[in-house]
Amino acid sequence: MKNRLVFFGLIALAAVLATTSSIAAIIPNAAAFHTFGGTYVVNIIPGAAQQESLYHYYPPSIAVPKETEVAWFNGDPEQPHTVTSGNPGGQDSGMIFNSGVMSYQYFFQYEFHQAGDYPYYCMIHPWRLGTIHVSDEVVQGNNFEFSTGTGSTWNLLEFDRNLLKFEPTTVSLEETTPASYYVSIVDNTTKQTVHNGFFPSTNNLLIELISNDSNANQTITYGPDRASTIHSTPGAYHVQGNFVKTGATYAINVVLYSVDGKPLESPPMDRFQLKVAG
């Protein structure tokens, strides 16, 4: 039991260190992640009840593909919060989803099946707002289905985050089947690989690209959003950097490298295109 807690603690620490110092305290205990099935986590940060707090929901605005399950985790000690669809005082308030009152370390999750824009807020602190943009655009490759939160064009003026989803179509995988994917992102103009790496997951892979306006050349990878188990998809990974350039087009290569710990003799692979505007 002690080793298990240490393992969860190391995962939580790695996620915190991977973010900027201003949001370092928003990642809740990874052991809590183990208890729910959300594939993308939005945190209610410590101090969120205070009006002067920079954030309430973090990230405050995300773009995800259809069928993404978002989980909100209340990490604000001793403070109740809600996740309520619509706008404060609106007639549609709470009609799509409503968490009810969430105590500290409680969570709420909702799966988005329809494309559109979903504003939401906290009924207890109605000045706290969040938005979720859902895209239903899907590209069918030879071996994978590819979808993103913004569609085939990522407008950086609208979204600084974009969740990508890769789902194998020629290899049948269960949610309980461990699989390893290799993903590389290549600038079509310079032909340079701007990011690459292996990502363990199961029957699909979620990677969120985050545009970083800083001049630093460092690319940070962190995640997954909850403690991985052999019984469920671990959730989204995140790749943050200034590698995303307005007007560029990127080739995103994905390979299903191994299944259940065994490398595939003829690994399925595909190449997709992502245009960046803004």
TrEMBL record:
What Gene3D superfamilies does the record point to? Answer: Cupredoxins - blue copper proteins (2.60.40.420)
**InterPro entries attached to this UniProt entry:** Cupredoxin, ET_Amicyanin
Q: Would you indicate the residue range of the signal peptide?
A: none
**Protein name, per record:** Blue (type 1) copper domain-containing protein
Q: Which organism is it from?
A: Nitrososphaera viennensis
